[in-house]
Amino acid sequence: MAERVTAFFDIDGTLGWTDPVAREQMSDDERKLSPVPSSVVADAIRRFVAAGNRAFICTGRSPLDIHPKMAALPFSGMACLAGAYVKVGDTVLRDVALPPEVLTCVDEVLAETGTGALLESARGSIDVRGGAAGTHQPSPGSVAEALELIPCRRAHKVVLPTPAARLVVERLAGVVDLSIMELELGNSEVGLRENCKSGAVRAILDYLGDAGTTYGFGDSENDLSLFKQVDVPVAMGNASPEVKAAAAMVTDTVGNDGVAKALAKLGLL
Questions:
Q1: What is the pTM of this model?
Q2: Quick check: 198 pLDDT over 80?
Q3: Same domain, 199 and 188
Q4: Distance between CA atoms of residues 82 and 155, nearest Å
């Protein structure tokens, strides 16, 4: 019998991709959803799982912002919100939100700089002051108002213009251990340093016990911590040079079904 293996898949730039400029022109509901995999990649995930293996989503997105067509694939669980929320089946392994002092500081910085932000939680995401782009109106005028619209009244990470994100991290230095990750369109996400893909994957592997050989697929800086926890890190052809250098294998780009090609080359289908 072939070994049962476990693989972790990033979403944006790995399983699928949406042009960030085009995404900004979408309706509010569409804009917040993840991309969908191509039919070739979706079929590869199904075949991978049908062969007796486990597949997990490993993303910075909120679980409620994962497109239904993506979520419908046979994943055994997910590590979301950059590791702040982790679930295997119906069992939640991690649910670590930002403390109140971080959200208060974000509110103050947004008011001072006249910028907006996106709050992301396990119960979805919501724009504040027009979102990081400042154009998504109507939206709550403060973090406090936005939290009232989130069922759990908690946020796990926040996306805001990079200068504002750096200001939040600087002001809370020595008070809360935060990390900052640069994204596209001049934005960055801020979250607790303890919330990372590495910790999320470790929690899942500890829960599974025997996971077999482990694989991680990614394309961006936040996937480097994922790569540290798996036996075989696989970088997409569209990944940054740093991510490619950390990988054991570089596959084709997301636009050319790189995940499906890698699974086939590795003999996992």
A1: 0.93
A2: yes
A3: no
A4: 12
